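INFO  loader      accepted 1 record
INFO  loader      residues=242
INFO  predictor   begin
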Amino acid sequence: MGIVAFFYGAVSYLAFLVSFTYAIGFVGNLWVPKSIDTGGAGPVAEALIIDALLLGIFAIQHSVMARPAFKRWWTRIIPEESERSTYVLAASLLLLALYWQWQPIPARIWHVEGEYGRIALTGVSFLGWGIVFFSTFLINHFNLFGLEQVFAALRGRDLPDPEFRTPILYKLVRHPLMLGLLLAFWGTPDMSAGHLLFAAMTTGYILVALQFEERDLIKLFGLAYQEYRRRVPMLVPFLPKR
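INFO  predictor   done
INFO  writer      dumping tokens
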């Protein structure tokens, strides 16, 4: 079973790499055949409903499958070492479906003409993606995406208990990965109504989801995380801590 779980984990990780890489082009209207602003534009009301449903389905999956209570129930059905890989695979497939079915809403919200302004805003987006990827390695990239779990099972070893650490970016904000996503989604010189819907809904989801994640982290790490919350802001450096 170990080799099967490892192969499953590798496939899930590959799905993550594809969906993450495509996300950069999708949000930035770069390189990919179908992006946030390309494709035939239909009725606005229909596009709003479809896009909101796509984002809502992803948000539900992403939050429900991340909760400890769901994990305890889910690992009665699937091997524990494959739990994270299943979460990653489901999220990646839903993202790919979102890219495929997304309905553009091309109405212009803002458009930056100046070359330096365009470069700066595009740079903000790429900075965000870089922060996201870098942050995953700060907190154990291969554990976050399920490979460490299936590799340990393949070798017949147990994983150590989670350790509370605050490396580099985590000394500035509690959730640099989410900060990176916000920069990536909002940093654009060409904001369409569809892009605004995407950015606004994902921002709302992030702000709500972080409340649940912080509650879980307090249960996991106790006083250490509560003290961390008092010292370090959630998303924006140097702002109030909560």
